[in-house]
Amino acid sequence: MPVSGPPVATSLPVGSDADLAWVRQRIRQTAAGLGFGLVQQTKLVTAASELARNTLVHGGGGHVEITPVTRDTTRGLRLSFVDSGPGIRDVELALTDGHTSGGGLGLGLSGARRLVHEFELDTGPGRGTTVTVVAWTADVPAARSGE
Ligand SMILES: Nc1ncnc2c1ncn2[C@@H]1O[C@H](COP(=O)(O)OP(=O)(O)OP(=O)(O)O)[C@@H](O)[C@H]1O
Ligand SMILES: [Mg+2]
């Protein structure tokens, strides 16, 4: 029996409020298992909660992929929120604090971005939306030159 194998991605549906609750729970469990502290878990779950809600409300539902990742000796968690909804026409505007196309606060996307280490938006009109975030168990200084 293998003691450890390659990190396995888990895919969970995001199609209802009940799915959102389960997604939050699974992400917290997975993060805790990887060694995320309580504050780090809460940051990641808060970001995930906003992104999953966008997948449901704006994207018409989709799924989330949960993948443990490592860089050098640091462990992290990558989350991809995927929908095939209308997509986002103006990404910069959507990421502006307070911008909402509906009755929200417009703080979901921008807030989520601040709560994770890496944030990537792949979207466009008619292309659906994929938001991928990565959080690490420790802050790894990025390689810098001349600083
Ligand atoms: N998955 C998505 N598909 C299509 N549009 C999206 C998606 N996610 C976000 N958007 C667009 O980006 C805007 C900003 O998203 P954000 O989460 O910041 O605000 P919100 O969902 O309107 O309000 P809230 O503060 O309640 O989250 C949304 O109003 C919506 O127009
Ligand atoms: Mg939102």
TrEMBL record:
Residues 39-139 form the Histidine kinase/HSP90-like ATPase domain. It comes from the Bacteria. It holds the Pfam family HATPase_c. This is Anti-sigma regulatory factor. The lineage of its organism: Bacteria, Bacillati, Actinomycetota, Actinomycetes, Kitasatosporales.
